[in-house]
Design goal:
Rossmann fold, 17% strand, 6-stranded parallel beta sheet, 23 helices, alpha/beta
């Protein structure tokens, strides 16, 4: 039986485990869309915008560990999709990106409708890319794409699919050998396909023995758990107890280790409390597990300090190795080199270390450091009656939202309180982009609601991010995903306002109008609530969690409460004192008045 190339690519990816396709439908890949209808193991999710589709695919893959598919049409759709692909690239999330292309016989002169070199456009933000030039190559390309997305450091891969080639019929199996692909022009010439298989890389026994000896002799060992430790929470707890290791989570990877465990020391986020990083600064051994050790996690590459012996365990640890191919050290950031690089599957290394030591050392040595974390992550008492701010939102969440809820967030100062005060106790309960992309939270929660229907998904988002992708609430309504959105509305692009106030003593271009987000949610078919004080916030959150379908709580907060510990007006005032010829005072009072006038949305549905 013959099938189109579009059918073969969908069937091949389905055989490998890709189940969900997130997309805005386009005419350039009609055969892929039709194939998802015909294949009973695939689910097509039609979104309101391609950025939402790519964010959903990223969240899906984070929760399942299996690549999801993000699909879009030619240039406009591909451009819209790019923000989510960039997020997956930075977050090391496996993703297969399918982008339609102009018919092959029209491509090349730059005159075809929506023509662009998609492989070149996506090359900096994908691991690998290929353009389908012969329909007979399609199954082989799909298999190589899946392997590339899941091997080594996972990430997004791109298949560019000309519409006429997709529509061609393919013989049984639709396969050609991988070596033939390299000679037929099926692979984009500018991108080499990775040769490493999807199977885990086993650690070298001598490196494991060396690492075990280092852990046993260390007086104050600390480990930093990153993205490639997903699904290893129980093993990481056993490892920490077995060797007496203190544990930090890398930036926005707080759910990879239970935050209430006595060995947990804190989150390496933007501007953490200095008390919580003391143990990391003084550690004699730092074990980086599945981390890229980027700028935020390393506090602008100041940590680990030179006094710490740094071990880097990651499937791609040797990709950053020094010029000497026989060296076991590697560069992991500007000015810092690992003392020992272990290029292997993180889970395999952890298992080998656990097999080599029977008597646990426990977590007693970290009692003081854990206590410092608990104190910093506890909402201060005496806040009743105060104007609402992002801390109020997290305080209400701790009272109402189940501890095992999947919490999503994106960029913005509102998220500082969430990362500081919400304690992640269960694995696979945090979805947050390390790329700092705005608009991630709502689509990610929608995907979570679809992939994990028995688990509540809660999106915490600023009004800026909500107004970018909040329309995906309609997608949740249409597909029946149970999602609660907490839209923290201060009428500002708050992070930029803070930086402007600190630098210039004023703000400019950061105001957001008083949109009635609850009414917007109701117009999309969801329940909509408005909260303006602590009592109405708790009441609205209880109603939202209990609602049968998607629900949005419009939380009107004080725009001056820019962080849990500072006000925007105080930051601006301090800046003007340092530079008396700076800007004028930001109109905080005017913003408060405008926010008050906006508190007119109805509570309830």
């Amino acid at each position: 039986m013959r099938a189109t190339a579009g059918q073969v690519v969908v069937d091949t990816l389905a055989e490998l485990g890709a189940r969900h396709y997130y997309t805005v439908p386009g005419e350039s890949f009609l055969d892929v869309l039709e194939a998802t209808r015909r294949n009973p193991s695939t689910t097509l999710v039609s979104t309101r915008h391609e950025s939402g589709a790519a964010f959903m695919a990223d969240a899906d893959a984070k929760l399942t560990g299996m690549p999801a598919v993000a699909a879009a049409t030619r240039a406009p759709g591909a451009a819209n999709l790019a923000i989510g692909v960039h997020t997956a690239f930075h977050d090391s999330t496996p993703m297969v990106v399918l982008v339609g292309q102009v018919d092959s016989h029209l491509y090349g002169a730059g005159l075809a409708f929506q023509e662009i070199d998609l492989a070149a456009f996506y090359r900096p933000i994908t691991k690998w890319s290929a353009t389908l030039s012969r329909s007979g190559d399609v199954a082989g390309l799909a298999r190589r794409a899946f392997a590339a997305a899941t091997s080594g450091r996972p990430g997004p891969v791109l298949l560019v699919l000309p519409g006429d080639v997709l529509a061609e019929e393919v013989g049984p199996g639709g396969r050609v050998a991988n070596e033939e692909l390299e000679t037929t022009g099926g692979v984009d010439a500018g991108t080499a396909a990775p040769d490493c298989p999807a199977a885990a890389r086993e650690p070298a026994p001598d490196l494991v023995a060396r690492l075990r000896g280092l852990l046993e002799s260390a007086a104050a060992p600390v480990m930093v758990v990153g993205g490639r430790t997903s699904g290893l929470s129980a093993a990481l707890v056993a490892l920490a107890e077995r060797y007496g290791i203190g544990v930090y989570s890398a930036f926005r990877r707080q759910d990879h280790f239970p935050n209430d465990h006595p060995a947990y020391l804190g989150h390496l986020t933007l501007a953490p409390a200095q008390e919580t990083v003391v143990a990391l600064r003084s550690a004699d051994l730092v074990l980086a597990l599945g981390c890229r050790l980027g700028e935020v996690t390393t506090q602008r590459f100041s940590l680990p300090s030179d006094r710490s012996y740094l071990v880097h365990v990651d499937p791609d640890a040797d990709r950053a190795a020094s010029v000497d191919p026989g060296s076991t050290t590697g560069h992991v950031g500007p000015g810092r080199q690992s003392d020992l690089a272990v290029p292997a599957d993180v889970g395999a290394v952890v298992a080998a270390l656990l097999a080599g030591r029977a008597a646990p050392l426990g977590s007693d040595r970290w009692a003081g450091a854990h206590r410092a974390y608990l104190e910093d992550s506890t909402v201060p008492a005496g806040r009743a009656g105060a104007p609402l701010d992002p801390t109020s939102v997290v305080e209400a969440m701790t009272e109402v939202v189940p501890a095992d809820a999947i919490v999503t967030s994106d960029a913005g100062n509102f998220s500082i309180a969430l990362h500081r005060f919400w304690r992640f106790r269960f694995p696979h309960t945090q979805l947050a982009p390390t790329s700092g992309a705005m608009g991630y939270a709502v689509p990610a929660a929608v995907a979570a609601g679809l992939v994990r229907p028995g688990q509540l998904a809660v999106a915490v988002v600023g009004d800026g991010g909500y107004l970018m992708t909040g329309q995906e609430v309609e997608t949740a309504v249409r597909y029946g995903a149970k999602v609660v959105v907490l839209a923290v509305r201060n009428g500002l692009y708050g992070t930029i306002a803070m930086h402007q106030a600190r630098t210039f003593g004023t703000t400019w271009g950061v105001d957001i109008g008083p949109v009635d987000i609850a009414a917007h949610a109701r117009s999309l078919g969801a329940a909509g609530f408005t909260a303006t004080d602590s009592a109405s916030l708790r009441e609205a959150l209880v109603a939202a969690v209990g609602a049968p379908g998607p629900a949005v709580v419009d939380v009107v907060v004080d725009p001056d409460a820019i962080t849990p510990t500072a006000t925007l007006s105080a930051i601006a005032s301090a800046s003007r004192e340092r530079s008396p010829h700076g800007g004028t005072e930001p109109p905080i009072g005017a913003r408060r008045a405008r926010a008050g006038r906006a508190r007119t949305g109805q509570r309830g549905t």
